Amino acid sequence: MDTTSQWDRKSTTVVTKLSPMQKPYTILGILAAIILFISIVTVIDIVQGVLFIIGLALGATLLHARFGFTSAFRRLMSVGNVQGLQAHMLMLAIATTLFAIILGTGFSFTGVTPQGYVFPVGMSVLVGSFIFGIGMQLGNGCASGTLYSVGGGASSMILTLLAFIGGSVIGAYHFTFWMEDTPSLPPISLAESTGLGYFGGWLVQMVLFAVIYWITVQIAKKKNPPMMKPLATTAGWKKVFRGAWPLFAAAIILALLNALVLAVRGTPWGITSAFALWGGKALMAVGIDVTSWGYFTGANGEALSQTVLADSTSVLNFGIILGAFISAAVQGTFKPKRMKLGVAGASIIGGLLMGYGARLAFGCNIGAYFGGIASFSLHGWVWMVMAMLGTLLALFIRPLFGLKNPKPTDSVC
Prior knowledge:
about 65% helix, two-stranded antiparallel sheet, two-stranded parallel sheet
C-alpha cells in the first residue's frame, strides 16, 4: 500500500495498516522490566525504581516518534529540512521553562537540591562536540538514538554502543589533559552568571528559540525540502501503544520527562557517564586499575566500587533500552537485520568518536545539548553549533562507508 498518497505532508505520521504485535517479545520485555524494577527497588530504593520507570517512558517516547537528533541535524545540513530542529526548539522551550521553575525555586520530589548541567566552555567542548557531530552521523545515532535503536532491534547499533563505551573509556583516560592542559572559560550560566536570574535567562532563551524557529521557517520556504518520511500509525486509543507518535508530541513528552528526572534525582537526564562507568568496571574486572585516572575521582570513583544499579544514569539507560524494546514489539517492528561491512565500520568509528567526544564536551546530545541548554549553560549552545559543523563535515565522509545522505530531489527524507 502506498501510504504517502494518504499522507498530510504537515504530519510526521500516516494512518495505515500496522505490523502484527510480536506477543512473545512483548511478554519477555514486560517480564524483564518487572524483574529489573523489583531488583532495583530491593537493592537500592524506590527513588531509583522511579528513575527506571522514567527511563522506560523515555525509551517508549523515543521509539514511537523515532525522535532523532542525528537525523534532525543531517536533514537540516543536507537538504534544509527543518522539522527535526523545530521539534528541538519546542522541546527546549518547554524544558527551559520547567527547569527555570525547578532550579529557581529549588523544587524537588526527593529533597535533593536540584542542579543544572552548567559546565566550562573551552577547547575540550569545541573539539568534543565537533567530533561527536561527526561520530553520530557515522554511527547513525546519537547517545539516545543508540540506546533506543538497540532496544528497537537495529543490529548495527550494538556495534555503535560497544564502540561508544570504548570511546568513553579512552576519553576518561585523557580527561585530565583536556581539563587541565587546554584553555577554558569558567562555567557560564545565562541565568546566574549574567545577573539576569532565571526569569531573565528564560526570556533570553525564549527569544533565541523563537529566532531559530523563524530562521527554520525561512529556510523551508527558500529550499522547499523533502518532508520527513511519515511513520505508520493508527487511529483512536490504539495509537498510544501501537502507532507512531507525532514528532511535536514526543518533543513535549521528552521535555516533561527531563524535568521530572531533574526533580527526582537533582540533575537532568544524562546518558554517557554510564558508558564510561561500564567501561571502567570492565577494565577493573580484567585487572586494569582505572582509579588513578583523573576522571574516576569523587562520585565517578565511588561508582566503580558499587553495583551498577546504584548509578541512576545506568538505570535510566536500562529503562530506555527496555522501553524501546517493548514498544517495538508492540508495534511489531523488532526485526534485527544483517549489516553491511561498510555500515559496521562506520558504526564502530562513529561510536568511538561519540564516546570520546562526549567525555570532552561534558555530555552528549542529551547531557550537553538538551540538558545544557535547558540548564541555561552556554556550553550547551556551543555544543549545538559545533555538532552541526561536525555533521556538515560528516556528510562528505558518510558515502565512503556506503551511507546515503538525503537529496533535494528525494520525495521524502
